Amino acid sequence: MTAAGPSRVTIRTARPEDIPAVHEIYSESVRNGTGTFAEDVPTFEEMTEIVRDIQNSKWPFIVAELPHVAESREDGSTPGDTLVIVGYAYVAQFRMRSAYRYCCEDSVYISPSARGQGVGASLMDRLIHEAKACGFLSILAVIGDSRNQGSIQLHRKFGFRDVGVFKEVGLKFGQWLDVVMMQLDVQGSEEKKQELRQSA
User: Fold this and answer.
1) How does the average pLDDT of the chain come out, rounded?
2) pTM metric for this prediction
């Protein structure tokens, strides 16, 4: 299943052949960003295991593609546009203890060259829909660095509310970093929560 979003963004379920691009995007964030507190780039095998574990749990792991215009051949002809993976997103149960089974945490990563083109919004729109389809009632965003306004504003755009800040809990690049906590209760979750509470 694919879906088109702004700026000709295509969103689809990740496939095994997408893992090199996913690994490259995340590695760039580890090396240069504060959105993740990871300091060591994962191996390709570790990234493969992450994707496999998410999908084996029947949770969404999706990628975003944008058209890339290839350079002209020597004879002057062009091979046409090719789709390039420029971002990815997934959700996983927030904590693995069973009582957390209706609550998930999202992760969204976008290539620096693709930011500002609607990629994040396209990923988030699809991710929320798929998280709800999985039965999750709450989606949490655990955002590294309170200066990460791109991620914070993206989540606010989709209705996430601020629920707290952990002050200076991460040290990366010689800086103490906050963690911003945000939460979205998916549509209809209050009624479902009441139903589940009564049946517990």
Assistant:
1) 92
2) 0.89
